[in-house]
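CBS domain-containing protein
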Amino acid sequence: MAEEGLFFRPVKNFCQRTVVTCGADDALVDVVRIMREKNISSVVVCENKLPHGIMTDRDLRNKVVAAGTDPSTLVVRAIMNSPLSVIGENDLLYEALYRMSRERIHRLAVIDGKGKLSGIITDSDIIRLQSHTPQQLVLDIEQARNFDELSEVYSRIQGLVLHLSDGGTGTRSIRDMVRMIAHLNDQILLRLIALLRQDRFADLPPRFALVVLGSEGRGEQTLLTDQDNAIVYGDELGPDEIHRIEEFSQALVDSLIAIGIPPCPGGIMANNREWRRSLSKWQDQLDRWLKVPTPKHVLSCGTFVDIRTIYGDPSFEQALKTQLYSHVRRDELFLMRMVENTLRFAPPIGWFGRIKGESAGEHSGMLEIKKAGIFAISEGVKALAIQAGKLEGSTHQRLEALVRDKVVNRKMAANISESFDFLVLMRLRGQVEAVREGRQPDNYIALERLNMMELGRLQLALKGVEKFQEFIKSHFNLHLLR
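Predicted structure tokens:
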């Protein structure tokens, strides 16, 4: 495995298994004595055998020594940090790194599937593994002091993906690769916002949120990345506050373009007043989309409901999702039209299962992989997730929620996931080839470059899309539409 491949392995392979613990009501001096004897800098605090908080030597310095408090009068609960930041032992190492960087902490408790403490991992553990990796990229994003430095770091994300692809990326790791790209893009955006606020926008009102939409909202970006973002703000804000948000949104979009993230061709960006509204105005817009499901409204709403708060007040997102769920419980016409729209993108399979590429033009003989199957799966799963009220996360996470709710069975979900992963793998591979050949990455793959095994797997994946479309057509009773 390439050295960078370490970051696609589970945390349990690297965490420290021996963890010193204590109770929240243990005497502070007793726990400090144990820390000194074992030469450790932190102790995990457990309640009912579950990790509850953490006490570090920094807490002792800042909350006891600096405050001049008598430690003999204190219990651990008085100075510990709670709730404790945790990560699952089967989560990936780069996710641990991302969490530490995002929360500005140095250690994470590692838990098993039952929530019980199974280890601890620190940023020092990760740094020792490697110095020039996704880990270093995340640190460099956090430490970028200006837009030029951030632009340089952003350009390295593409280089990292190309490098990791050299070792070959299979369907088992493509999901991890996509999640890594999404995490890094999130970090870039958050650091850019921090720089803008530090430089010009320290006075922004608290009641607003920058949200990301579409594939960015689902965390499913590959190398072909543009902007899909919007702003929601409180109805109580005054004209001056709204004007500052408008100025911020323009500066944000311009800065994203400057560091290398192109604008959305459809104008789905926060600097567009159509995608920057108060909560009540967004609720009105969502209501119009849902009540009159024209093809244009279905497309716009389908992008919007992948909403994910990247910065600011998360309550707006929840309010809009609650409105969506409430509407479709009363009237499923929008969902039926949404699914009807996905069926327009039928997998291009001809006689004897032959895959049909473009017949003319500059992409003759090539397959537009997003239209061939990726869109049908992501939008079909989205429709099921809306109906079930489980719209959080990626397509895979939504599928897992649908299995738990018995909307789809585990075998069907596994088949959908396998088809989706292979199509995304083909998409990313085509984009990597384009970058290496000096072309602009897009969603086309050259069928002639695929070997017989790859063509066979592509054929199976597209047939899997066909089966899924048959399922959702029946599930939503599309025969009732006229």
